[in-house]
């Protein structure tokens, strides 16, 4: 073995990497981005849980209850519905994650130093957030009880008690939250990954230009490329749906039309991203690396791995730029809550805008490359 030849080969590889500017962001930016995302998100407390308050007492003591929750830093007072029916609509529409119900006569019982209770209703469609929210609520109520009943608690008088009720996923099974999310993630991973390889593969083989010498039109070519991957992806998510509901016993309380419409709209976005990657990449390896580069922020900033409420405020606005965030709300809410188009229209609108913008840009780029 000649170490001189080995050194020359090593030097040649470094020169090739330096000349390939498209690889430099993948080599240096991706690990830094992953470190920042994981470092900020992992281990961060869940905060600013959207909280609705049904105050039937309207007293100084009931106001103290609300202030105790807000001042804890974990709960954000977003609405004061007049009754439980209005509260339920907020939970169904994802406008609230927690609801506090203060019963009538609460202040009288506190002043008489008699035991009383506060109702806590938690949205269980995200099991991680629900578990943390339940624990935080009980801690806040326990601290509040100590303030309202200083030194007077006995075995028969427990002060203020938190009656926690978890909706949509009472047992807080993680699989009930994960299976719906996997439908969206598998759809994204399958369509985006395969589509990113489709056109660049033809270009590498030199068959792309040959195809357009034939009577095949550009629109026909693109449709022929897209449809197989969409069908394969929907076969995959059908399998996941079937196994999830039958084997893992995940309840499906929604509407297949709403679920299918949401996934189809999201598929257009994923295909558009894959198309852009394929058009901007010169080799399949570049396309593969770029797809991985896009998937890491999607997983971290969408609520797929970690609750959005655990995200630092500096990163939270970035989550609105991640299409996966919106489809996760659709699939989880439709699966567990039975939410329909009326409750989920903001998510459908966001996905429609994303799909039109991303897919439209991909199509324009495709036409431009063919005309060059």
Q: Could you describe the 3D structure shown?
A:
By secondary structure, this protein is α/β, with parallel strands linked by helices. The chain has 2 domains: 119 residues, abc type-2 transporter like fold (3-Layer(aba) Sandwich); 198 residues, no CATH class. 64% of the residues lie in helices and 9% in strands. It is built from 13 helices and 5 strands. Strands 2-1-3-4-5 form a 5-stranded mixed β-sheet, sandwiched between helices. Helix 3 links the parallel strand 1 and strand 2. The two termini are 47 Å apart.
Features:
single chain; 2 domains; alpha/beta; abc type-2 transporter like fold; 372 residues
Topology:
Layout: H1 3-19, H2 23-41, E1 49-55, H3 60-71, E2 75-79, H4 84-92, E3 98-102, H5 106-111, E4 116-123, H6 127-148, E5 160-167, H7 174-205, H8 208-211, H9 218-246, H10 256-280, H11 284-300, H12 323-337, H13 341-371
Parallel strand pairs: 1-2, 1-3, 4-5
Antiparallel strand pairs: 3-4
Helix pairs in contact: 2-11, 3-6, 7-9, 7-10, 7-11, 7-12, 10-11, 10-12, 10-13, 12-13
TL;DR?
With 372 residues, the chain is of the alpha/beta class.
Question: What portion of residues belong to β-strands?
Answer: 5-15%
State the secondary-structure class: alpha/beta
Helix and strand run = HHEHEHEHEHEHHHHHHH
User: Low-confidence parts lasting 5 or more residues at pLDDT below 50?
Assistant: none
N→C terminal distance: 47 Å
Report Rg: 26 Å
Main sheet properties: 5 strands, mixed
Arithmetic mean pLDDT: 84
Q: In total, how many domains does the architecture comprise?
A: 2
Strand tally is: 5
The coarse silhouette is elongated
Spatial strand order of the main sheet? 2-1-3-4-5
Helical fraction equals 55-70%
Oligomer: single chain
- Provide a count of the helices: 13
């Amino acid at each position: 073995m000649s170490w001189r030849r080995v050194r020359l080969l090593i030097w040649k590889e470094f020169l090739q990497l330096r000349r390939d500017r498209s690889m430099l962001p993948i080599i240096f930016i991706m690990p830094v981005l992953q470190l920042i995302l994981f470092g900020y998100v992992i281990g961060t407390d869940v905060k600013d849980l959207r909280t609705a308050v049904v105050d039937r007492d309207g007293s100084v003591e009931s106001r103290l209850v609300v202030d105790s929750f807000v001042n804890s830093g974990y709960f954000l007072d977003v609405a004061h519905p007049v009754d439980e029916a209005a509260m339920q609509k907020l939970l169904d529409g994802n406008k609230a994650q927690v609801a506090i119900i203060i019963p009538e006569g609460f202040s009288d019982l506190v002043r008489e130093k008699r035991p009383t209770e506060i109702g806590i209703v938690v949205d269980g469609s995200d099991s991680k957030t629900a578990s943390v929210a339940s624990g935080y609520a009980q801690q806040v109520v326990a601290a509040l009880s100590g303030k309202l009943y200083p030194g007077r608690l006995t075995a028969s008088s427990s002060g203020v008690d938190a009656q926690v009720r978890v909706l949509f996923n009472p047992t807080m099974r993680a699989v009930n939250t994960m299976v719906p999310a996997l439908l969206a993630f598998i759809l994204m991973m399958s369509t985006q990954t395969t589509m990113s390889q489709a056109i660049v593969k033809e270009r590498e083989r030199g068959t792309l230009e040959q195809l357009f010498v034939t009577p095949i039109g550009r629109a026909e070519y693109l449709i022929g490329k897209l449809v197989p991957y969409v069908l394969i992806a929907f076969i995959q998510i059908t399998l996941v749906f079937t196994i999830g509901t039958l084997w893992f016993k995940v309840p499906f309380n929604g509407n297949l039309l709403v679920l299918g419409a949401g996934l189809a709209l999201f598929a257009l976005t994923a295909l558009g991203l894959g198309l852009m990657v394929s058009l901007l990449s010169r080799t399949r390896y570049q396309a593969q690396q770029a797809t991985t580069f896009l998937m890491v922020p999607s997983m971290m900033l969408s609520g797929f791995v970690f609750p959005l409420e655990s995200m630092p405020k500096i990163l939270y606005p970035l989550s609105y730029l991640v299409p996966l965030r919106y489809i996760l709300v659709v699939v989880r809410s439709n699966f567990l809550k039975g939410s329909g188009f009326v409750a989920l229209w903001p998510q459908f609108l966001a996905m429609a805008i994303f799909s039109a913008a991303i897919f439209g840009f991909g199509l324009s780029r495709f036409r431009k490359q063919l005309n060059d």
